[in-house]
């Protein structure tokens, strides 16, 4: 589990803590974002995923994200361990005090001991937060001045009458923090985690800036625009009254996914993230559109269902009127339901087959286009057909603009099919390592079906052979099974969602293929 991590021990508040640490150095000039997590169950893991993905999507300047975790079960840390762009600190023993404020402070103080003393800005974050607007971090940093040396997303007067900014999300000048010998430790009941640091900062003659937040100003709800109007989450607004940040926050018992507020649940939070912000796009089932097509056309490949569904979701990462390059795609005689041309993008095609009418009649390894030309590169079911997949990925990276996305899919448990050749099958570990080595970051990989979907997809070809048979018995068997194929497809998705499948190294090791979204970093 902790391969690639370094084991360390650290003394904090008179106690010894064992750490598993994996960090990459970064420039002290870029902001350090520190999120404290406690992933006790799968519901809290969803919160962490949504927070990480929203930070990636809406942060338009250089930053370094740290996640420091307080003794979560090892099985809940697997996803974080696979995020190579994040600095990770796993605290492997319980906090000395059994309260959330102390645990949060322990996480922040741990990173404070590790980061470079030359760091310029340090931002604190909870795990149940989401940036919601591009440029949110740029906006917060713009509020710093000679007097203002801390900027937060919510001001509180509950404990400290003079007011402080809440540690759920504030940025502080790290040089001043160190010079004043501040800390994040709470001193309850007066000072919660991070409160006293802001109080002493003010006592030293500095000021802070806090965005407008709905939790203390109900009138802000009146000016909210869709899709935020009517939500019960805590929302922070910028100078244009746009929501730039949300906090699931008060009234939610995160371990129980329950709430005292309307629409204030983890399920509602994730639903909003997926439907409105397009950031939490994992799913265990196919869309209704795909299932309807399967019902109308039982011969429709289940593998193709997964591919279409993936691209319907992944294309949301691409801004309107973007320049898109489809490597291996076809202008005519397209396969499946997904058609990139209907989204208003400017699409160019690369293919070695002149009959597909490509814009570039070219090998995928050497496309005659200048660097940084496209906002998105699509590689749909192409990598298995090229002898040098690494070279194709390097070419895609070269052609992408900084901040651009590569969207790719490829089969895994699938029969050999020449088009004109079939060279390989690649695991999620291969994609993660290879894409990172090429230079991509924010790499998201999804399995497209597990054991039962793979088995059913292979059965489809058996059905096809039965229907081609000259024997009447085989034809009757094939037609009967084909009639129930859409039903079996839905069942296979449900069976794959059961814990006995998802948690089995063997059963979850089967998949029809993979879908991948990755980004060429801006800097």
Show the helix and strand layout:
Layout (H helix, E strand, L loop, with lengths): L5 E7 L2 E8 L9 E6 L4 H17 L5 E7 L7 H4 L5 E5 L8 H15 L6 E5 L3 E3 L4 H7 L5 E5 L2 E2 L7 E2 L3 E5 H6 L15 H9 L3 E4 L1 E2 L20 E4 L5 E5 L4 E2 L4 E2 L6 H10 L12 H9 L5 H13 L8 E5 L18 E6 L8 E2 L12 E7 L8 H11 E12 L16 H11 L2 E7 L3 H18 L3 H12 L1 H12 L2 H4 L10 E7 L4
Parallel strand pairs: 3-4, 3-6, 4-5, 8-12, 18-19, 18-21, 19-20, 21-22
Antiparallel strand pairs: 1-2, 2-5, 6-11, 7-15, 8-11, 9-10, 13-14, 14-15, 16-17, 22-24, 23-24
Helix pairs in contact: 1-7, 12-13, 12-14
Outline of the structure:
The chain has 15 helices and 24 strands.
- What's the helix count? 15
Which blocks of ≥5 consecutive residues have pLDDT under 50? Answer: 251-262
Mean pLDDT: 90
DSSP strand (E) fraction? 15-25%
Structural class based on helices, strands and sheet pairing: alpha/beta
CATH topology term of the largest domain: Spore Coat Polysaccharide Biosynthesis Protein SpsA, Chain A
For the sheet with most strands, the description reads: 9 strands, mixed
Q: From the coordinates shown, what is the CATH architecture of the largest domain?
A: Alpha-Beta Complex
The span between the termini is 30 Å
Alpha-carbon Rg, integer: 25 Å
Largest sheet: spatial strand order: 1-2-5-4-3-6-11-8-12
Query: Care to count the β-strands?
Result: 24
Helix content: 25-40%
Count of separate structural domains:
2
Under CATH at level 1, the class of the largest domain stands as Alpha Beta
Shape: elongated
